[in-house]
Design brief:
The chain is an alpha/beta fold and about 575 residues long. It has 15 helices and 22 strands. It folds into two domains: about 325 residues, 3-Layer(aba) Sandwich (Aminopeptidase); about 200 residues, Glucose Oxidase, domain 1 (3-Layer(bba) Sandwich).
């Protein structure tokens, strides 16, 4: 009973009381199985070092997908998985093909808006950016009606729908960035206040507009709620964009997605007799109704299209008792390849921390789990490609799973294990979203560690690495790692190290292997990852998202009817 988190005790007591009085209760709340406490075999620091050193050496040229660096990397991972005793994870093969499309939107005409007899014109780059997820050589939207849809959120679990009552076919949605309660200082509120939920992410806005049948979607940029400036939007929306090849060729998406500057939005709304500030205030209140604007917009551009192929690498340890239930370990193998040369003329972004360490952890975990013998459930070791291009390898696997997601219990994603001292705390990205928290509490208790939150919940980091491709399809995933309260040097040392990494080495040629690195920290991380993955693989439990979490309904639907 001790291992049951406080949340469910009051519920249980109520249920048994009613049973006692012979009153038929709806459905007794699910009583989660206790979290198994697992024994941890030795984790090989030598393996962590060797794999990180090898994959981050200049010979791998920064592991860019579609280059000789990819071939070397994929062959090395297969070799290490084989040596660890895993089986090929894709129907006898070690790899999964990941077909990609590279689209470059160009020759944009100005965005033209007609309102109340006026014609407004906005320049590409300075006032707006746009592109298309549709694989087509030309994109044109002519005189499409504009509709202001607030934050563009459709959250049934919150009884919130910013599209209620409007037919978006042939229209363009004008959408605010972040979620309706982002200004709150705490994390309370329907959308977790200061913490950004998936509803706040730009990708969600475009997906929901497409689900609503909109012809186009334009997000209003505003630096504070976006958590980055217009120059970030401008640079990430110009040049070549990579997408995974989808069965629909993107035809289930809008014709065009993009961003407009806040000043552009203010001008458009003013010309339509509306006020952005007033509409924004209204949009923050439950029951907000979409506002058709007396305005239409036109835009157009060409799309240069190329195709390429990359690969995910998959190894598996089949389970003993329930082999058709799966637990995931994921890490991306790709990095930036050759990048802008630094002052020393070094132009290879070696990606030692990001993410040769994560792949090294995959191999060390494969060895340790093989040493411990097969658990009850099967364990899938998945090294994905194209994370740096937008989580594409994990997106492709999650939309073309080798092992059904409805039979995938959960998993641990490992991205950029920082070097240095072990810590007294574990940081959780995303906060307490699911019943996985029980597993984390059990593991950290066994390791004598405390659990701390993340320092910047408003930046939505949970939605920015590979676990998210699974979470958004309902699979509960861990994104955890050492906190900054270091054993050697305390919080000061921990924070200084992560500052240095983010400001100096992140996505730079200087993210290289050093023989004198202190591996006690990564070893602690991998020990935690072992405990989390192994306990999920030994239990018969199906941990779910908490009732109010944005992924709960998706999971319940995907598991409905699964025996
Ligand atoms: Zn990474």
């Amino acid at each position: 009973m001790l291992q049951t988190p406080l949340r469910s005790i009051p519920l249980l007591a109520a249920a048994s009381l009613l049973a006692l009085c012979g009153v038929a209760t709806a459905k007794a709340p699910r009583r989660p199985a206790p979290v198994p406490v697992v024994a941890v075999p030795p984790i090989s620091a030598e393996t962590l070092k060797e794999v990180t050193r090898t994959l981050s050496s200049d010979a791998y040229e920064g592991r860019a997908p579609g280059t000789p660096g990819e071939d070397k990397t994929v062959a090395t991972i297969i070799d290490r998985f084989k040596a660890a005793g895993l089986k090929p994870g894709n129907k006898g093969r070690w790899t999964q093909d990941v077909p990609t499309v590279i689209v470059e939107a160009k020759n944009h005409v100005p965005l033209t808006v007609k309102a109340e007899g006026q014609v407004l014109s906005f320049a590409f780059g300075a006032d707006y950016v746009a592109g298309s997820y549709r694989i087509t050589p030309r994109t044109d939207l002519a005189d499409a009606p504009l509709v202001f849809v607030g934050f563009g959120v459709n959250a049934p679990e919150q009884g919130w729908n910013d599209y209620a009552g409007v037919d978006m076919k042939g229209k363009i949605a004008v959408i605010l960035v972040n979620d309706p309660d982002y200004e709150q200082a705490d994390e309370n509120g329907p959308f977790k206040g200061r913490r950004m939920t998936y509803y706040g992410r730009w990708r969600y806005k475009f997906e929901e507009a497409a689900r609503q049948g909109a012809a186009g979607a334009l997000i209003v940029h505003d630096t504070f709620p976006a958590a980055y400036g217009w120059q970030v939007v401008q640079s990430s929306w110009s040049g070549k964009q990579k997408y995974v090849q989808s069965a629909t060729n993107g035809m289930d998406q809008t014709l065009a997605n993009g961003w407009i500057q806040k000043s552009t939005a203010e001008a458009i709304l003013k010309a339509s007799g509306q006020d952005l500030a007033a509409l924004t205030a209204a949009a923050k209140v439950k029951g907000f109704k979409p506002v058709p604007l007396n305005a239409t917009a036109s835009l157009g551009f060409d799309n240069g299209i190329e195709r390429a192929m990359s690969h995910n690498v998959i190894g598996v340890q089949p389970g003993k008792a329930r082999p058709n239930e799966y637990v995931l370990y994921t890490a991306h193998w790709d990095h930036l390849g050759r990048c802008k040369a630094n002052a020393k003329g070094d132009d290879i972004c070696n990606g030692a921390i990001d993410n040769a360490t994560g792949v090294a952890a995959l191999v060390a975990l494969a060895q340790a789990n093989r040493k411990a013998g097969p658990p009850a459930r099967s364990q899938v070791f998945l090294a994905v490609t194209l994370e740096e291009s937008g989580l594409l390898g994990s997106e492709f696997y999650a939309s073309n799973p080798v092992y059904p997601l409805a039979r995938t219990v959960g998993g641990v994603n490992m991205d950029a294990l920082g070097m240095g001292s072990a810590a007294r705390d574990i940081a959780v990205t995303g906060g307490d979203k699911s019943e996985l928290t029980r597993y984390l509490q059990t593991a950290t208790r066994a390791m004598g560690l405390t659990i701390t939150g993340e320092t910047h919940p408003e930046r939505g980091y949970y939605y920015r690495s590979d676990h998210f491709s699974f979470a958004k399809r309902g699979v509960p995933m861990f994104d955890v790692g050492r906190g900054s309260d270091w054993v050697n040097g305390g919080r000061a040392a921990g924070e200084a190290a992560s500052e240095r990494y983010s400001n100096v080495d992140y996505h730079q040629p200087s993210d290289e292997f050093h023989e004198d690195w202190d591996w006690s920290g990564p070893l602690q991380d991998v020990t935690l990852f072992y405990r989390l993955g192994r306990s999920l693989a030994e239990t018969s439990d199906w941990p779910n998202w908490h009732k109010t979490d944005e992924f709960r309904l998706i999971r319940d639907r995907s598991r409905a009817g699964v025996k």
